[in-house]
Amino acid sequence: MSCRKALEQYIKATNTHVFENVKELLDPDAVYWFSDQTCSGFEEIQRYFENAWKQIENEVYSASNVSWITETDEQAVCLYTYEWEGLYQGESIQGSGRATNVFVKDESGSWKLKHEHLSSLPKL
């Protein structure tokens, strides 16, 4: 599997709203920088994801304008615009922002997400 396919699988797994599907694609030492919190390791990341899925029902997450800024045999970094939509307290809601993802290849040769940084889009 390529790093590009790993990103596709990560987004697909996120949209299942089942953390075990996401966990399969994460490095054990993964670190997330969300706009409101930093999460390290599976337990913290799982709590954050599951809370978000409870807050935004039927959330659909997607990526556009993906740019791979580094690709080697062992690591890859991409930038993209993320979009999400779902229901918050029964009302339709959506948002977007910037993402940076760092993938590393593990001992078995599989690509794993090591770091994700999400932030707001710059104000115009």
TrEMBL record:
The DUF4440 domain, residue ranges: 5-113
Official protein name in the record: Nuclear transport factor 2 family protein
